[in-house]
Amino acid sequence: MLRASLAAASALALASCATQGPPAFVNPVLPADFPDPAVLRAADGAFYAYATQTERAGKWINIQVARSADLVHWEELGDALPAKPAWAAAKQQFWAPHVLYDAERRTYFMYYSAEPDGATGKCLAVASAAAPSGPFVDSGRPLLCGEGIENIDPMAFDDPRSGKRLLYWGSGGAPLRVQELAADRLGFLPGSAARELLFPDAAKPYRALIEAPWVVYREPDYFLFYSGDRCCAREPRYAVMVARSGDAEGPFEDRSDPILEAGGGWIAPGHCSVIADDAGGDWILYHAYRAPGGAREMLLDRLRWDRGWPALSR
Question: 92 lies in a domain?
Protein backbone atom coordinates (compact mmCIF):
# COMPACT_ATOMS: atom_id res chain seq x y z
CA MET A 1 0.00 0.00 0.00
CA LEU A 2 1.45 3.29 -1.10
CA ARG A 3 1.10 5.50 1.96
CA ALA A 4 3.24 8.08 3.69
CA SER A 5 2.98 9.69 7.10
CA LEU A 6 4.07 13.24 7.76
CA ALA A 7 7.27 14.18 9.55
CA ALA A 8 6.55 16.63 12.36
CA ALA A 9 9.80 17.76 13.91
CA SER A 10 12.69 15.88 12.35
CA ALA A 11 14.77 17.65 9.71
CA LEU A 12 14.47 16.32 6.20
CA ALA A 13 17.84 16.23 4.41
CA LEU A 14 17.50 16.61 0.67
CA ALA A 15 19.34 14.54 -1.90
CA SER A 16 22.82 15.76 -2.70
CA CYS A 17 21.93 16.01 -6.41
CA ALA A 18 19.50 18.85 -5.65
CA THR A 19 22.26 21.41 -5.31
CA GLN A 20 19.94 23.94 -6.89
CA GLY A 21 16.93 22.68 -4.95
CA PRO A 22 15.67 23.43 -1.44
CA PRO A 23 18.05 23.19 1.55
CA ALA A 24 17.40 20.91 4.52
CA PHE A 25 14.22 21.88 6.34
CA VAL A 26 11.79 21.11 9.14
CA ASN A 27 8.04 21.08 8.57
CA PRO A 28 6.04 23.27 8.57
CA VAL A 29 7.84 25.59 6.17
CA LEU A 30 5.22 28.28 6.81
CA PRO A 31 4.00 28.00 10.44
CA ALA A 32 0.85 30.10 10.09
CA ASP A 33 -2.68 29.73 8.78
CA PHE A 34 -2.07 29.29 5.04
CA PRO A 35 -4.81 27.02 3.64
CA ASP A 36 -4.98 25.57 0.13
CA PRO A 37 -1.46 26.58 -0.98
CA ALA A 38 -0.85 26.93 -4.73
CA VAL A 39 2.74 27.40 -5.82
CA LEU A 40 4.08 29.23 -8.89
CA ARG A 41 7.60 29.74 -10.25
CA ALA A 42 7.34 33.32 -11.43
CA ALA A 43 9.14 35.14 -14.24
CA ASP A 44 11.44 36.78 -11.67
CA GLY A 45 12.77 33.35 -10.65
CA ALA A 46 11.19 33.31 -7.19
CA PHE A 47 8.57 30.89 -5.92
CA TYR A 48 5.21 32.37 -4.93
CA ALA A 49 2.53 30.61 -2.91
CA TYR A 50 -1.08 31.76 -2.78
CA ALA A 51 -3.62 30.75 -0.17
CA THR A 52 -7.21 31.09 1.03
CA GLN A 53 -8.25 34.11 3.07
CA THR A 54 -7.16 34.48 6.67
CA GLU A 55 -7.23 37.02 9.48
CA ARG A 56 -4.04 38.63 10.78
CA ALA A 57 -4.03 41.05 13.73
CA GLY A 58 -7.78 41.58 13.38
CA LYS A 59 -7.61 42.34 9.64
CA TRP A 60 -8.80 40.11 6.82
CA ILE A 61 -6.44 39.17 4.00
CA ASN A 62 -8.59 38.21 1.02
CA ILE A 63 -5.97 36.16 -0.83
CA GLN A 64 -2.66 35.45 0.86
CA VAL A 65 0.64 35.50 -1.00
CA ALA A 66 4.14 34.54 0.15
CA ARG A 67 7.51 34.48 -1.62
CA SER A 68 10.53 32.19 -1.38
CA ALA A 69 13.85 31.70 -3.12
CA ASP A 70 14.15 28.04 -2.12
CA LEU A 71 10.67 26.66 -1.17
CA VAL A 72 11.76 26.52 2.48
CA HIS A 73 12.12 30.11 3.70
CA TRP A 74 8.93 32.09 3.07
CA GLU A 75 8.18 35.80 3.39
CA GLU A 76 4.50 36.71 3.72
CA LEU A 77 3.71 39.61 1.38
CA GLY A 78 0.16 40.43 2.47
CA ASP A 79 -2.94 40.57 0.28
CA ALA A 80 -2.74 39.66 -3.40
CA LEU A 81 -6.40 40.74 -3.89
CA PRO A 82 -6.69 43.86 -1.71
CA ALA A 83 -9.91 45.08 -3.38
CA LYS A 84 -12.89 42.75 -3.28
CA PRO A 85 -14.76 42.25 -6.55
CA ALA A 86 -17.90 44.38 -6.86
CA TRP A 87 -20.07 41.27 -7.14
CA ALA A 88 -18.78 39.89 -3.79
CA ALA A 89 -17.95 43.10 -1.93
CA ALA A 90 -20.28 42.55 1.02
CA LYS A 91 -18.88 39.14 1.97
CA GLN A 92 -15.66 37.62 3.22
CA GLN A 93 -15.49 34.35 1.28
CA PHE A 94 -12.36 34.06 -0.88
CA TRP A 95 -10.80 30.65 -1.32
CA ALA A 96 -8.33 28.40 -3.06
CA PRO A 97 -6.47 30.64 -5.53
CA HIS A 98 -4.29 29.44 -8.37
CA VAL A 99 -2.03 31.72 -10.42
CA LEU A 100 -0.70 31.19 -13.94
CA TYR A 101 1.68 33.42 -15.92
CA ASP A 102 0.93 34.24 -19.55
CA ALA A 103 4.30 35.18 -21.07
CA GLU A 104 2.76 36.47 -24.30
CA ARG A 105 0.55 38.92 -22.40
CA ARG A 106 3.10 39.47 -19.62
CA THR A 107 0.22 39.04 -17.21
CA TYR A 108 -0.47 36.88 -14.17
CA PHE A 109 -3.96 35.39 -14.00
CA MET A 110 -5.45 34.35 -10.67
CA TYR A 111 -8.35 31.90 -10.58
CA TYR A 112 -10.14 31.69 -7.25
CA SER A 113 -13.47 30.94 -5.56
CA ALA A 114 -15.85 33.41 -3.94
CA GLU A 115 -19.40 33.69 -2.68
CA PRO A 116 -21.42 36.37 -4.46
CA ASP A 117 -23.54 38.97 -2.74
CA GLY A 118 -27.19 38.02 -2.59
CA ALA A 119 -26.60 34.27 -2.96
CA THR A 120 -25.16 31.34 -1.02
CA GLY A 121 -23.71 29.31 -3.89
CA LYS A 122 -20.05 29.57 -4.82
CA CYS A 123 -18.49 31.00 -7.98
CA LEU A 124 -15.31 30.62 -9.95
CA ALA A 125 -13.59 33.93 -10.62
CA VAL A 126 -10.54 35.36 -12.37
CA ALA A 127 -8.33 38.38 -11.65
CA SER A 128 -5.14 39.64 -13.29
CA ALA A 129 -1.96 41.53 -12.33
CA ALA A 130 1.31 42.69 -13.83
CA ALA A 131 3.36 41.26 -10.94
CA PRO A 132 3.13 37.90 -9.14
CA SER A 133 2.56 39.58 -5.77
CA GLY A 134 -0.32 41.62 -7.18
CA PRO A 135 -2.34 43.63 -6.69
CA PHE A 136 -4.71 41.41 -8.68
CA VAL A 137 -7.85 43.07 -10.03
CA ASP A 138 -10.99 41.02 -10.60
CA SER A 139 -12.35 40.78 -14.14
CA GLY A 140 -15.68 42.25 -13.03
CA ARG A 141 -17.86 39.16 -13.24
CA PRO A 142 -17.66 35.54 -12.09
CA LEU A 143 -16.77 32.78 -14.53
CA LEU A 144 -19.34 30.29 -13.28
CA CYS A 145 -21.73 30.15 -10.31
CA GLY A 146 -23.83 27.41 -8.73
CA GLU A 147 -26.30 26.79 -5.95
CA GLY A 148 -23.85 24.81 -3.80
CA ILE A 149 -20.09 24.48 -3.40
CA GLU A 150 -19.41 22.57 -6.60
CA ASN A 151 -17.68 25.53 -8.29
CA ILE A 152 -14.55 25.94 -6.18
CA ASP A 153 -10.84 25.06 -6.22
CA PRO A 154 -9.87 26.16 -9.75
CA MET A 155 -6.53 25.19 -11.30
CA ALA A 156 -5.43 26.57 -14.69
CA PHE A 157 -3.19 24.45 -16.90
CA ASP A 158 -1.73 25.00 -20.35
CA ASP A 159 -1.59 21.63 -22.07
CA PRO A 160 1.87 21.33 -23.66
CA ARG A 161 0.61 18.80 -26.23
CA SER A 162 -2.67 20.27 -27.45
CA GLY A 163 -1.94 23.94 -26.70
CA LYS A 164 -5.31 24.26 -24.98
CA ARG A 165 -5.77 26.56 -21.99
CA LEU A 166 -7.66 24.43 -19.49
CA LEU A 167 -9.38 25.10 -16.18
CA TYR A 168 -9.97 22.29 -13.67
CA TRP A 169 -12.27 22.59 -10.66
CA GLY A 170 -14.78 20.77 -8.51
CA SER A 171 -16.16 19.93 -5.07
CA GLY A 172 -19.39 19.66 -3.10
CA GLY A 173 -20.23 16.06 -3.95
CA ALA A 174 -19.96 16.81 -7.69
CA PRO A 175 -17.28 15.40 -9.99
CA LEU A 176 -14.01 17.10 -10.81
CA ARG A 177 -14.38 18.92 -14.13
CA VAL A 178 -12.31 20.53 -16.88
CA GLN A 179 -13.19 23.09 -19.56
CA GLU A 180 -11.21 25.02 -22.15
CA LEU A 181 -10.57 28.71 -21.54
CA ALA A 182 -10.74 31.45 -24.16
CA ALA A 183 -7.53 32.97 -25.50
CA ASP A 184 -7.81 35.97 -23.17
CA ARG A 185 -8.16 33.59 -20.18
CA LEU A 186 -11.01 35.70 -18.77
CA GLY A 187 -13.76 33.26 -19.65
CA PHE A 188 -14.49 29.85 -21.13
CA LEU A 189 -13.98 29.27 -24.83
CA PRO A 190 -17.30 29.91 -26.62
CA GLY A 191 -18.85 26.62 -27.65
CA SER A 192 -16.79 24.60 -25.18
CA ALA A 193 -18.38 22.44 -22.50
CA ALA A 194 -17.25 21.10 -19.14
CA ARG A 195 -16.09 17.49 -19.05
CA GLU A 196 -16.48 15.31 -15.95
CA LEU A 197 -13.19 13.66 -14.99
CA LEU A 198 -13.52 11.91 -11.64
CA PHE A 199 -16.56 11.17 -9.50
CA PRO A 200 -16.90 10.98 -5.71
CA ASP A 201 -17.30 7.46 -4.37
CA ALA A 202 -18.15 6.90 -0.71
CA ALA A 203 -17.10 3.26 -1.02
CA LYS A 204 -13.46 4.32 -1.51
CA PRO A 205 -11.18 5.85 1.16
CA TYR A 206 -11.27 9.67 1.29
CA ARG A 207 -13.57 9.94 -1.72
CA ALA A 208 -17.01 10.73 -0.32
CA LEU A 209 -16.21 14.25 -1.53
CA ILE A 210 -13.34 15.10 -3.89
CA GLU A 211 -11.82 18.51 -4.62
CA ALA A 212 -8.64 20.55 -5.14
CA PRO A 213 -7.42 19.27 -8.54
CA TRP A 214 -3.80 19.89 -9.53
CA VAL A 215 -2.45 18.61 -12.86
CA VAL A 216 1.16 17.77 -13.72
CA TYR A 217 2.44 16.59 -17.10
CA ARG A 218 5.21 14.01 -16.93
CA GLU A 219 5.72 12.63 -20.40
CA PRO A 220 3.81 10.72 -21.63
CA ASP A 221 1.16 11.00 -18.89
CA TYR A 222 -0.90 13.59 -17.04
CA PHE A 223 -1.24 13.23 -13.26
CA LEU A 224 -4.28 14.63 -11.48
CA PHE A 225 -3.60 15.18 -7.77
CA TYR A 226 -6.71 15.80 -5.68
CA SER A 227 -7.93 15.70 -2.08
CA GLY A 228 -10.99 14.22 -0.45
CA ASP A 229 -13.46 13.95 2.43
CA ARG A 230 -13.54 16.50 5.27
CA CYS A 231 -10.79 19.09 5.31
CA CYS A 232 -12.06 21.45 7.97
CA ALA A 233 -14.81 19.93 10.13
CA ARG A 234 -14.65 19.22 13.84
CA GLU A 235 -13.28 15.76 13.03
CA PRO A 236 -11.30 16.40 9.85
CA ARG A 237 -10.47 13.44 7.63
CA TYR A 238 -8.53 14.42 4.55
CA ALA A 239 -5.83 13.01 2.27
CA VAL A 240 -4.22 13.38 -1.16
CA MET A 241 -4.93 10.96 -4.01
CA VAL A 242 -3.74 10.82 -7.61
CA ALA A 243 -5.09 9.67 -10.97
CA ARG A 244 -3.34 9.22 -14.33
CA SER A 245 -4.27 9.71 -17.98
CA GLY A 246 -2.71 9.89 -21.41
CA ASP A 247 -4.81 12.99 -22.14
CA ALA A 248 -5.21 16.21 -20.16
CA GLU A 249 -8.98 15.90 -20.51
CA GLY A 250 -9.14 12.28 -19.40
CA PRO A 251 -10.34 9.66 -18.89
CA PHE A 252 -8.27 9.25 -15.71
CA GLU A 253 -7.24 6.01 -14.02
CA ASP A 254 -7.55 6.49 -10.25
CA ARG A 255 -4.86 5.11 -7.93
CA SER A 256 -6.69 3.22 -5.17
CA ASP A 257 -4.53 4.29 -2.20
CA PRO A 258 -3.80 7.82 -0.97
CA ILE A 259 -0.26 9.06 -1.45
CA LEU A 260 -0.44 11.36 1.58
CA GLU A 261 -2.50 10.99 4.75
CA ALA A 262 -2.41 11.82 8.47
CA GLY A 263 0.55 10.85 10.64
CA GLY A 264 3.53 12.08 12.61
CA GLY A 265 1.47 14.57 14.61
CA TRP A 266 -0.22 16.13 11.58
CA ILE A 267 -3.82 15.58 10.57
CA ALA A 268 -5.94 16.22 7.47
CA PRO A 269 -3.10 16.90 4.99
CA GLY A 270 -4.25 17.99 1.57
CA HIS A 271 -5.12 20.55 -1.06
CA CYS A 272 -1.68 20.22 -2.59
CA SER A 273 0.31 21.84 -5.36
CA VAL A 274 3.37 20.45 -7.12
CA ILE A 275 6.47 22.28 -8.38
CA ALA A 276 9.88 21.38 -9.83
CA ASP A 277 13.18 22.79 -8.56
CA ASP A 278 16.15 23.84 -10.69
CA ALA A 279 17.66 20.37 -10.44
CA GLY A 280 14.52 18.75 -11.85
CA GLY A 281 13.24 17.39 -8.55
CA ASP A 282 9.51 17.51 -7.82
CA TRP A 283 8.06 18.87 -4.58
CA ILE A 284 4.61 18.86 -3.05
CA LEU A 285 3.27 21.73 -0.93
CA TYR A 286 0.10 21.21 1.12
CA HIS A 287 -1.65 22.22 4.30
CA ALA A 288 -2.20 20.21 7.48
CA TYR A 289 -3.37 20.71 11.07
CA ARG A 290 -1.47 20.04 14.25
CA ALA A 291 -4.86 19.61 15.97
CA PRO A 292 -8.54 19.96 14.96
CA GLY A 293 -9.64 23.57 14.86
CA GLY A 294 -6.11 24.94 14.61
CA ALA A 295 -4.34 26.65 11.75
CA ARG A 296 -3.80 24.90 8.43
CA GLU A 297 -0.05 25.35 8.12
CA MET A 298 2.02 24.84 4.96
CA LEU A 299 4.22 21.75 4.66
CA LEU A 300 6.68 20.55 2.03
CA ASP A 301 7.81 17.09 0.91
CA ARG A 302 9.78 15.65 -1.97
CA LEU A 303 8.08 13.53 -4.61
CA ARG A 304 9.67 10.53 -6.28
CA TRP A 305 8.31 8.49 -9.16
CA ASP A 306 7.77 4.78 -8.65
CA ARG A 307 6.64 2.55 -11.57
CA GLY A 308 4.84 5.41 -13.25
CA TRP A 309 3.19 6.88 -10.15
CA PRO A 310 4.21 9.66 -7.72
CA ALA A 311 5.03 8.88 -4.10
CA LEU A 312 6.45 10.80 -1.15
CA SER A 313 10.22 10.45 -0.76
CA ARG A 314 11.85 10.51 2.65
Answer: yes
